[in-house]
Design a protein that fits this description.
With 449 residues, the chain is of the alpha/beta class. The chain is 38% helix and 16% strand. It has a seven-stranded mixed β-sheet, sandwiched between helices. The protein has a four-stranded antiparallel β-sheet with strand order 11-12-15-14. The protein has a two-stranded antiparallel ribbon with strand order 1-2. Helix 7 links the parallel strand 5 and strand 6 (192-197).
Amino acid sequence: MSTFVSRTQCVGNRVCAAAHIPQDAALMVEAGRATPCRFTICLAEICHAEPPEAPSRAPRRMNTVFDTLPTTVFETMSRLARVHDAINLGQGFPDDPGPADLREHGARALRDGWNQYPPMMGLPALREAVAAHYALHQGLALDPETEVMVTSGATEALAGALLALIEPGDEVVLFAPMYDAYLPLVRRAGGVPRIVSLRPPAFRLDEAALAEAFGDRTRVVVLNNPLNPSATLFGHDDLDLLARYCRRFDVTALCDEVWEHVVFDGAGHRPLMALPGMRERTVKVGSAGKIFSLTGWKVGFVMADARLMRGLAKAHQFLTFTTPPNLQEAVAFGLGKPLPWFEAMRAGYARSRDRLAGGLRDLGFEVLPAGATWFLNIDVANLGYADDAAFCEALVTRHGVAAIPVSAFYPDGSVRTLVRLCFAKADATLDAALDRMSGFRSGRPGRSA
């Protein structure tokens, strides 16, 4: 068998593309025992002309929605955390591996189960589990065949829903502070964002602001409830008000409810879908990653009226199409866990919230109420900071704790003194972070842990 090598191929006095020829043939040509034309090549030493320069052309432009996006604050703070060996309370993920029984169930399904394409809409077992779960926990009656779909994470569900629901020029109402994916996804779908800013500490809806944002061109409103990063739930009055505007203007509500199980102090999640007149005009999105503290699994689910679901499914078909079947099997198992499991999960995170909040208050920080999610916020105005980003930079570089400036969740940066911290960490991690943050109050120049 011959070994192949590359040689320059020529036509006349022009150097052309490299050709692959047998190595023994190349040696014959170089030794003079064969002519170049026999192998339709010319060796470099008899080809002296340089290739012509390629015509200059302008750099190809990327889609401007994505090409102009800056580096996210999450990337920036995580990089600074690595550089400064900081405790990362910025990004929202727990520092434990997640429920052992779910991980074992997923591993067993991977090892012994089906590993080819599952159905596009999701495994029937998971869709049935989703319907049963929400019937038990939220009183929703969902048809698993026509009103439930599995996605590769909640962000895919949101992206697919926006692509399916929006025509170019449609207006989309968004509430700030907002998840950073909303705005570019709306713009990429051709939507025109109408942003309503919610003000701390309560982050309530305001009817005058809704009246200004909603109109005849409004097609979709995106609601994140519970709300990240504010760590608040919308009350019954807020939801009733929003439902009224959706019905009045015939608007579809895209409800990002991934934190629905992570609520504290006896509160319960009330889905907008359950309100009068909203069942047929709501797309509800849930996340196994948030429910089971398994953020890397990226298993989401979408619930909607069958009429809406037909369009949502077509968008999903040409995005990820499907989700790993072993993870679907494990999530189906998890959704069937008894009520005490969910109560214990919430109680555990509430203890972590109280540990971090209590420690911060003892250090003199102003801590805002946190009724949901894995986050709490501090107001740094009384520390002399008018810029939350500057505070976060000083915190990570001088004291070794990474946090997120809440101004990053406002497109206009209008709220500038709030800082978000994640408490979904081990006690030792939270205690070490508190010790380092004590330097802000004591005047210590750096970290102590």
